[in-house]
Amino acid sequence: MPHSSDDTSPAAPMAAATPGPVSAQVPVDTTSPNVAHHVLVDPEQQPHSRVRHWLLQGLVDQSGRYQGSYSAVAEKTHTWWRVMCLTGVDYFSTLGYQPAIAALAAGLLSPFATIVLVALTLFGALPVYRRVARESFKGEGSIAMLERLLPWWGGKLFVLVLLGFAATDFMITITLSAADATAHAIENPFAPAFFHGNNVIITLILIALLGAVFIRGFKEAIGIATVLVAVYLALNLVVILVSLGQVFGHPVVITDWWAALNAEHGNPLVMVGISLIVFPKLALGLSGFETGVAVMPQITGGKDDTPQNPRGRIRGTWRLLTTAALIMSVFLITSSVVTTFLIPQAEFQPGGEANGRALAYLAHEYLGPTFGTVYDLSTIAILWFAGASAMAGLLNLVPRYLPRYGMAPQWVRAVRPLVLVFTGIAFIITLVFQASVDAQGGAYATGVLVLITSASVAVTLSARRQRQRKRTIGFGIVSVVFLYTTVANVFERPDGVRIAALFILAILVVSLVSRIQRSFQLRATSVTLDESALEFVRQDAARGQIHLIANEPDDGSALEYRVKNKEERHDSHIPLGTKVIFVEVYPADSSNFEEDLVVRGVMKHGYRVLEVRSGNIPNTLAVVLLTIRDETGVVPEIYFEWTEGNPLGNMLKFLITGGGEVAPVTREVLREAEKDLKLRPAVHVS
Q1: How far is CA 70 from CA 67, 165, 411, in A?
Q2: pLDDT of 517-558, one tens digit each?
Q3: What is the 3-state secondary structure (H, E, C) of 4-63?
Q4: Percentage of the chain with pLDDT > 90?
Q5: DSSP reduced 3-state for 527
Q6: Where are the alpha helices (DSSP H) in 402-547?
Q7: Which has the minimum average pLDDT: 52-56, 224-228, 255-259, 445-449?
Q8: What is the mean pLDDT of residues 69-77?
């Protein structure tokens, strides 16, 4: 009889008060009828070097000090309009470069194309994200909706692709905003001479300072964002009002613009048609919606809010999204009008004084260098802090998905290592694009549009599932429009897809390697035994031995259990008088990695059975064995049959379906989790 065992002798009883190393870091009340054993080890509790301790500090930050990070509970919530300012440093800061990019992309048609963009914002993106806020109110955004609608591996792969586009959006926000802040600093008349020609170096310094802020902590983000947004919007309002005064004071600029437009495009219908075609180039003005729903946990809810239905928080988010969209729409239209009428088209070209800084050009032109310098400083500050909003989005998004999928190491939940990784990536992007705003615009727009398109599809599927016919049609039309916008943008500026493809490829490779490396880890975040399960194991623990027989559920008949009991006792030499407990794992979604397990004790045809539902059999059996040991103080033994089939095929099956070569993998998981042979549950195979 083939036999593999860690300890062939009967396990000696252990003192029940002695905690096992697996759950030692979490106090467990063993007198409770239902014991929840927290399994995943916190690396902060393990001895390591001083540098490692510093890096992993706040692995799962409970304090809210790192605003936007993967924290369980926000330390302090805020009114919706203050949280709007946190998203606004990203959304509103696009005024720093959006009018110039719009003029460069659409030329004299910029006002018309901007009106199309605003219509799509108010009647497309806004309704979509209001629904996202209602159905994904934990800050997970539209990606979580699609994850729920697309289960198993297909859903996981789709989420990874969306994460690649989200990473493109947020990373390019950091680098593009820093590059445009640099452009504003260099073009200021009071800027030192050595600024000129050192765009890349200045941009890298700004990105490094951003990373340093997050390394230190980001607790006061909303307070800083509120001041920056208020000052910036006030200054922009002054610039636009003064510029509108110039337009109305010199109406010849309007007639000159209209004459040039007619000479270039012929008639109004052609202008409208071309505006519909070119408006995707202005898609940067749609940024901020995904961030708006990501920060929902920061919004103060109502007194009647419940975790399952936070109606007050949802209403606050609706106000946030609506107010931000209306404010931005007004600024987008008016800024496109004044910049198109008052700035020569040549100045928008690369090397021109209005390139990447159209409103700053007007501030200096009509309000003088002193006001212009104040405007530049405000723009630099909010553009730099827009990168902070994007960094907060990354720190919220990446740890929420990848570690849970087993597709990233546990340290990805820590703030500081992630900040260092993202800062390094931002350095590389800046060097590749030489801190050019125009060169990064396509990648930014691609990331923004893919996320909005996926959100539109998510709410369309949600409405269809809930049999809301009119809303399904409406959201379906919005999805088609955004799909067209995305495709048009991709054809116009394919560099955005190339950059996103690099992010997606990197995420997929890291995910695959991490999933394989973590295959033999304990995957359960907690294991809860019900009253019957506790009674079964405690009965046998009182006799000093716990024997478990692993059974693959079949027809559930009395014959199945009778034959299994007889064969296992014979093959593994289990004495006839020894009590045994069957343990069965019922299959769930094998693409899941971390799970909360519930072990139920049931009687079947006179046999005691422990049932648990999981997407992975060997790792689940291992953690159940360790939980039984910790609960009773007795090291259990488990008995298997050899698995039929090719070992390599079985191993591949284990990686994909969670089954395969169960017995050897269970022993390997136990060996990895428990180094002390005397405390390790014994595995027998026959």
Answers
A1: 9, 20, 12
A2: 777 778 777 888 888 888 898 988 888 888 888 888 877 788
A3: CCCCCCCCCECCCCCCCCCCCCCCCCCCCCCEEEECCCCHHHCCCCHHHHHHCCCCCCCC
A4: 15
A5: strand
A6: 415-433, 437-465, 469-492, 495-517, 531-541
A7: 52-56
A8: 53
In DSSP terms, 596 is beta-bridged to 526
Identify the helix (H) or strand (E) that includes residue 394.
helix 358-401
Tell me the per-residue pLDDT of 391-441, one tens digit each, with 9 for 90 and over. 877 877 777 777 666 666 666 667 778 888 889 999 998 998 888 877 777
Round to whole Å and give the CA distance between 529 and 628. 9
pLDDT value of position 15: 33
Cβ atoms of residues 343 and 361 within 8 Å: yes
Smallest Cα–Cα separation from 137: which of 308, 323, 390, 325?
308
What is the distance between the alpha carbons of residues 585 and 613, in angstroms, rounded to a whole number? 6
Residue that has been written with the tokens 């478990």 in this structure = 548
The whole-angstrom separation of Cα 218 and Cα 176 is 21
Q: Which residues of 509-538 are buried (b: 16+ CB within 10 A; e: fewer)?
A: ebbeebbeebbbbbbbbbbbbbebbbebbb
- Closest of 658, 650, 565, 547 to residue 605, by C-alpha: 565
From 663, 477, 451, select the one nearest 552 (Cα to Cα).
663
658 phi, psi to nearest 5 deg: 85, 5
Instruction: Using the predicted structure, report yes or no on whether residue 46 has a pLDDT greater than 60.
Output: no
Burial of 192 (0-12, 13-18, 19+ CB in 10 A): exposed
- Helix 415-433 vs helix 152-187: angle between axes, to the nearest 10 degrees? 60
323: buried, middle or exposed (CB in 10 Å: 19+, 13-18, 0-12)? middle
Rounded Cα–Cα distance for residues 80 and 96 (Å): 24
2-23 mean pLDDT: 35
Helix and strand counts by DSSP (H, E) for the chain: 23, 8
Instruction: Answer yes or no: pTM beyond 0.85.
Output: no
> 273 φ, ψ to 5°?
-60, -45
Answer for the pair 162, 417: CB distance below 8 angstroms, yes or no: no
d(CA 112, CA 99): 13
